[in-house]
Amino acid sequence: MDLKKLYAWCSVPTDRLIDHPDRKVPFAIVESPEELGEKMARDFAEDIKSAGGRTYRAIVPCGPKQWYEPFARIVNEKRISLQNVICYHMDENLDWQGRTLAENDPNNFRTFMHKYFYEAVSPDLQVKVENRHYLTPDNYRQLADEIAQVEIDYVLGGWGQDGHVAFNQARRNPYHEVTLDDMRNSTARIQENNWDTMLALSQRDFGTAWQFLPPMSVTLGVRECFKAKKIRVYSATGAWKQTALRVALFSEPTAEYPMTLLQEHPDALVTATRETAYHPFSDHPEWEFRGVNV
């Protein structure tokens, strides 16, 4: 990463991001986490409704969490049937031996999604049980093969501190590098979670008690996630997403920030709260960095 360029990207004032001539991916700002949740839910619900009852396939995340309540409310109030929706879950946490977590573990994505995504919808409108495809250590190759054979209508999700979508993280292994083509063509896999990913997630939910974070995950790859007709990613998390967002908006594609590959997609949109779109560098032009000619 060219530090001079990174400094320049992070120094762009928030209000200039929307119409900046160097921005490489469509971008929207909302004012609050609540507004982001409403937009995320409405965008997804309206796209499902526009399918007119045909089979509709989506890759869904466990987070950002602001969208579940408004999604269920919109679906229930507008009587949008999810009976023909097929959901593929993009990732799941695993323990240190690569096993699924206990059902009552707060890091279990399946348990959370069952309660807040599926069961919050009226029974007659819910996604059918047989159409809920949770990712596990036993079925990830099968689901990747299935996704390769069908059209995916929609991917929604967030991004991580290194711009990861699903758990497609930047590679941190000092003895093995991943090229941009490797990242672009990555498929479903079991992996160790990066240390910075664990610290970021623990800071958000557990007061940085990283000891309670599962160290492994199973994830769909970029190949599966980015084949969708539409990709919509959102964040209301603030500081630990700010630099990744600036890189995604302005950098050429790089495996160091997988989210930069969104600019190669014909219908991708990034949406962030104003807090997440802000960057402290934009308020401190007097800062100097040794060894970096800014």
Helix-strand blueprint:
Elements: H1 3-10, E1 27-30, H2 33-50, E2 56-60, H3 68-78, E3 85-89, E4 91-94, H4 109-118, E5 132-133, H5 140-148, E6 154-157, H6 180-184, E7 189-192, H7 195-205, E8 216-219, H8 222-225, E9 230-235, H9 242-250, E10 268-273, H10 274-277
Parallel strand pairs: 1-10, 2-3, 2-6, 3-5, 6-9, 9-10
Antiparallel strand pairs: 4-8, 7-8
Question: Could you give a quick summary of the protein structure above?
Answer:
Helices cover 30% and strands 15% of the residues. The chain is built from ten helices and ten strands. It has helices at 3-10, 33-50, 68-78, 109-118, 140-148, 180-184, 195-205, 222-225, 242-250, 274-277, and strands at 27-30, 56-60, 85-89, 91-94, 132-133, 154-157, 189-192, 216-219, 230-235, 268-273.
Characterise this structure.
The chain has 294 residues and is of the alpha/beta class. Helix content is 30%, strand content 15%. It contains ten helices and ten strands. The strands form two sheets. A seven-stranded parallel beta sheet has the order 1-10-9-6-2-3-5. Helix 2 (33-50) crosses helix 3. The longest helix is centred in the N-terminal third of the chain and has 18 residues, at 33-50. It is globular, with a radius of gyration of 19 Å. The chain starts with a helix and ends in a 17-residue tail after the last helix. The model has no long low-confidence stretch (mean pLDDT 94).
The helix tally amounts to 10
Poorly predicted segments: none
The biggest sheet amounts to: 7 strands, parallel
Mean pLDDT: 94
Widest sheet: strand ordering: 1-10-9-6-2-3-5
Outline, from the CA principal axes? globular
**N-to-C series of helices and strands:** HEHEHEEHEHEHEHEHEHEH
Judged by helices, strands and strand pairing, the structural class is alpha/beta
As a percent range, the share of strand residues is 5-15%
Backbone CA Rg: 19 Å
Q: What percent of the residues sit in helical stretches (DSSP H or I)?
A: 25-40%
> What is the end-to-end distance?
14 Å
